[in-house]
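Researcher: Sequence recovery benchmark, item below. Answer with residues only.
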């Protein structure tokens, strides 16, 4: 996007937003856009400038950026919101997440906003892009938080213009975020530096708090547990001196290491938006102030209520700092997969220029450069081998453990490791266009997603902290009214325990941490979740519907036999058919062309070529009208009658029963031949299908191939349900028919004609070796080229969702069970009260438990591929 057309966002809701609109070609277009915009609720004024191709909109009450974009799109034009990734400071719990999201969405130009507690980042789609930053920053600051820009949707621009390297565009783009730009190199270093600074600060504060709290704890609790110690202390510190010493130590802890809770919690409380810090500030502050009154104005309290709780306040601060330290370290490990992928990037490349070989930095590699790779080196960028041969270890990208042989014409992936050979290749993918960059982007986008299950958490956390404060107040008064003497003291201790033990942090971390670790583990296994929501939808599927060619079969068919009608020459039939099919991208067409080339047959030019989707193709070769396609195409052309039998059709039936696909050929209106093309089933297909069936899933194969061939392939692969001889819309119909019965459907495919089915299914899985169109339509992309990846995707989605449910059960169960205990539920039954110090330990460990449980996904096991001996 050039500077002239860059959108502009005003500082407040009532000033105009200026954004580019693409597709306008005349004055009529201007009127159509203006009419469309005027129909959007909340638009106070608008104007379209045809010369600059921009739209100026003044938003008012009820304005929606999404509605504006939808109206422009329906009018036939294009205006887009840019994606910004913001680092959000000071978020500590799920309540913070909901408040930051609400603040961001309050900006008129924002289409959508999603905040992730685990990464500490917000992904915002906004009209105006980076120009919206002042308004976004102001809105978030009003809510009590701070943001900084770390990435945007334009990050890949430099790479697209020919600059190399992963993540070269935005230095602060960070791994673990959901932005579409690259994120490695300096960005990773910056992220790690900030994380290390946070951990270092927490470690320092915890150690200071611990050193100051330890003598306080010994003085107070030690004296309770060992009465002679109390006697010794009273002799050393006579009168009120012991209380004064405890006051000094407690003040040092709360004003030093504990000040973070008050600096953030008290302002949040004054904004009537209390968070986790507010709970700690109220709880420890109440214990401290009560103790101060006892120390300096004891006459203000009844004699039996003159107790100090300095040690409770300081122990609570120490334990919560320890919990946050452990939490910060665990959070750092959740993004390990992204950092590992980013670390695969080579730093330099060896290129041939002006007859010389020279080492250059990755940012200097250009498309078309000849790159030299020596034994054991990491391949710097994506490319196509020119000469040489070697075996390349692609396990870190595809998850396949066996090195892949590479020779002239083969593709190589940047970040993979060369074996013992050497070769030269042409650079075809650099910067943001590299496979490694795209993988990192997909994982980041998935990690920033919010699953449907998260909606429940958001609804609960919206009122959780205020509810806890309310419970604490009620607890205090209940003890004051019904509790034993000293009732005031018992009420204070119980109320503080309620405030301290409550843990919204665990609820906020339960889902995003599991998603982060799970999608990272999936990436290591060659499974890329383009949409994080697919984790939940894939775990709930009933049917797996799959394409045949390239999905179950290898997608590399070979001509197995040519059956000709009387009077037609086999070689001539092959020459004419191959000439006709030379411009087609269909796998069967490619097999026929390769067969002709293998026989040394020269091809002729084709004229008047016409393809009929789902049927076949016609054209004129050397003055002869040629048609090639399915039997239904021959029937449509009048070359064959439906159900016709002949020696040729009988032979074709036998070949189809063996799994070969017949392509009928008509020359000058006469049925000339049938070319049988066999596509072998992939070695892993049967294993994957058996494993899917063992999981209780129902399987179906849908294909445009003829029924006999389809049933033969399905039979050998182990699939019972088959839908054959269908067009792309037939695949969609098959999926919709299952969905109409209430079934959840996953579709696995690889071709352009699979894109509608991938988009229709509840979860679309694209084979990574397939077309870009299929990949763009899918929810999940398999870097490898077989069905085992689909099995692994389903296995991992089940494991991630199980992990999320465990985390949520713990997070909710912990609060539901222990808040009543902290309030004093056990006292009438067993005479037991709950110490706020125990509450602090439990609260800190609650978040650590959730993070530790999520980290188990780093070693999640999937079904191993059985290799033939």
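Model:
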């Amino acid at each position: 996007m050039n500077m002239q057309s860059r959108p502009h966002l005003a500082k407040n809701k009532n000033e105009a937003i200026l954004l580019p609109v693409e597709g306008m070609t005349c004055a009529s277009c201007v009127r159509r856009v203006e009419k469309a915009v005027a129909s959007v609720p909340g638009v106070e004024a608008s104007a379209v400038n045809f010369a600059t191709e921009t739209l100026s909109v003044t938003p008012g009450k009820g304005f929606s950026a999404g509605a504006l974009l939808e109206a422009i799109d329906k009018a036939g034009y294009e205006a887009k919101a840019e994606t910004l990734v913001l680092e959000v400071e000071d978020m500590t719990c799920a309540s913070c997440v909901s408040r930051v999201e609400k603040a961001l969405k309050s900006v008129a130009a924002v289409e959508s906003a999603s905040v992730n507690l685990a990464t500490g980042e917000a992904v915002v789609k906004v009209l105006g892009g980076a120009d919206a930053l002042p308004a976004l920053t102001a809105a978030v600051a009003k809510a009590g938080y701070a943001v900084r820009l770390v990435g945007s949707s334009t990050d890949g621009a430099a790479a697209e213009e020919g600059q190399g390297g992963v993540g070269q565009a935005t230095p602060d783009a960070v791994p673990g975020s959901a932005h579409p730009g690259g994120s490695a190199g300096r960005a990773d270093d910056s992220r790690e530096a900030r994380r290390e600074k946070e951990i270092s600060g927490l470690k320092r504060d915890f150690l200071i708090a611990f050193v100051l709290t330890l003598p306080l704890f010994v003085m107070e609790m030690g004296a309770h547990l060992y009465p002679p110690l109390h006697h010794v202390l009273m002799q050393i510190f006579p009168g009120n001196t012991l209380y004064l010493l405890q006051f000094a130590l407690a003040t040092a802890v709360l004003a030093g290491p504990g000040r973070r809770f008050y600096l953030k919690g008290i302002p949040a409380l004054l904004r009537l938006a209390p968070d986790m810090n507010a709970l700690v500030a109220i709880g420890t502050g109440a214990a401290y102030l009560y103790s101060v009154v006892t120390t300096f104005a004891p006459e203000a309290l009844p004699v039996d209520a003159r107790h100090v709780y300095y040690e409770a306040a300081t122990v609570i601060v120490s334990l919560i700092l320890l919990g946050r330290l452990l939490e910060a370290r665990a959070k750092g490990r959740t993004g390990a997969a992204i950092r590992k992928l980013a670390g695969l990037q080579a730093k330099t490349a060896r290129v041939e220029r002006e007859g010389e070989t020279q080492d250059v930095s990755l940012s200097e590699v250009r498309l078309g450069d000849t790159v030299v790779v020596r034994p054991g080196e990491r391949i710097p960028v994506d490319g196509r081998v020119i000469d040489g041969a070697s075996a390349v270890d692609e396990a870190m990208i595809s998850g396949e453990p066996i090195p892949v042989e590479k020779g002239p014409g083969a593709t190589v992936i940047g970040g993979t490791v060369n074996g013992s050979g050497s070769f030269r290749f042409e650079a075809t993918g650099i910067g943001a266009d590299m496979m490694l960059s795209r993988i990192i982007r997909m994982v980041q986008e998935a990690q920033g997603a919010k699953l449907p299950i998260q909606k429940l958490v958001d609804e609960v956390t919206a009122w959780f902290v205020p509810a806890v404060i309310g419970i604490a107040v009620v607890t205090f008064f209940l003890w004051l009214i019904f509790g034993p003497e000293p009732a005031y003291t018992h009420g204070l201790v119980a109320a503080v325990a309620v405030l301290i033990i409550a843990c919204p942090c665990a609820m906020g971390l339960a889902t995003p941490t599991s998603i982060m670790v799970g999608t990272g583990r999936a990436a290591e296994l060659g499974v890329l979740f383009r949409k994080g929501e697919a984790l939940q939808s894939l775990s709930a599927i009933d049917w797996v519907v799959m394409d045949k060619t390239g999905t179950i079969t290898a997608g590399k068919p070979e001509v197995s036999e040519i059956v000709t009608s009387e009077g037609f020459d086999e070689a001539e039939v092959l020459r004419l058919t191959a000439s006709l099919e030379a411009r087609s991208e269909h796998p069967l067409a490619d097999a026929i062309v390769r067969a002709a080339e293998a026989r040394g047959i020269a091809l002729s030019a084709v004229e008047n070529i016409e393809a009929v989707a789902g049927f076949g193709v016609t054209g004129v070769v050397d003055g002869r009208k040629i048609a090639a396609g399915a039997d239904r195409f021959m029937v449509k052309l009048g070359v064959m009658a439906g159900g016709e039998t002949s020696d040729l059709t009988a032979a074709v039936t036998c070949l189809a029963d063996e799994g070969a696909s017949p392509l009928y050929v008509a020359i000058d209106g006469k049925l000339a031949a049938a070319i049988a093309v066999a596509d072998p089933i992939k070695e892993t297909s049967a294993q994957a299908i058996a494993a899917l069936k063992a999981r209780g899933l129902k399987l179906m194969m849908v294909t445009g191939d003829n029924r006999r061939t389809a049933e033969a392939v399905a039979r050998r692969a182990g699939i019972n349900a088959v839908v054959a001889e269908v067009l792309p819309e037939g695949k969609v119909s098959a999926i919709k028919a299952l969905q109409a019965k209430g079934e959840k459907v996953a579709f696995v495919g690889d071709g352009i004609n699979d894109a509608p089915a991938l988009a229709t299914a509840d979860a679309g899985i694209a084979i990574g070796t397939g077309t870009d169109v299929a990949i763009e339509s899918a929810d999940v992309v398999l870097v490898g080229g077989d069905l085992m990846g689909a099995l692994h995707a389903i296995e991992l989605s089940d494991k991630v969702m199980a992990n999320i449910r465990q985390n949520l059960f713990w997070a909710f169960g912990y609060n539901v069970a222990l808040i009543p205990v902290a309030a004093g539920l056990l006292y009438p039954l067993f005479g037991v009260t709950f110490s706020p110090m125990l509450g602090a330990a439990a609260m800190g460990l609650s978040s650590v438990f959730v993070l530790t449980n999520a980290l188990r996904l780093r070693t999640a096991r999937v079904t191993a591929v059985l290799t033939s001996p």
